[in-house]
Amino acid sequence: MRPNLSGVIVMTDQLQWQGEDVIVAVATGARIPARSFHWLCSLAHLTSRQLAAVEFDRDVQGFNGDFNLRTVGPEEFRPAMETYFSQKGFMGTHVAHQRRVIDLVAH
């Protein structure tokens, strides 16, 4: 995914949780575009990895230092990522968690 086209920087080898690589996605602007986020959720599902997506808040003066964290994975993944990012100096303003983004429907 080219960051200038997808609106997101994707890293697959920068963070581990319970011995497994985590997909870390950082928005190049204020938000990760919906189409890119959906693609990342599909990648997480297909590779059986967790996803941590970081988006930065901005106000009239630009980025204000606050961030939003969206996670995809088991319930215990979210608090682990909150702790990890807060230890790195990020203070989240909003955290969203989805256990599973893609529901398989039987036909």
Sheet with the most strands, sense and barrel status? 5 strands, mixed
Q: What is the rounded Rg?
A: 14 Å
Rounded mean pLDDT score: 82
Helix-strand sequence: HEEEEHEEHE
How many individual β-strands? 7
Strand order of the largest sheet: 1-4-5-6-7
Distance between the termini: 32 Å
Instruction: Give the overall form.
Output: globular
Q: Please identify the structural class as seen in this structure.
A: alpha/beta
How much of the sequence lies in strands comes to 35-45%
What does this entry look like structurally?
This protein is an alpha/beta fold. It contains three helices and seven strands. The chain has helices at 3-6, 34-47, 77-87, and strands at 8-11, 16-17, 20-21, 23-27, 51-59, 62-72, 92-98. The strands form two sheets. It has a five-stranded mixed sheet with strand order 1-4-5-6-7, sandwiched between helices. The relative contact order is 0.17. Residues 101-107 have low confidence and may be disordered.
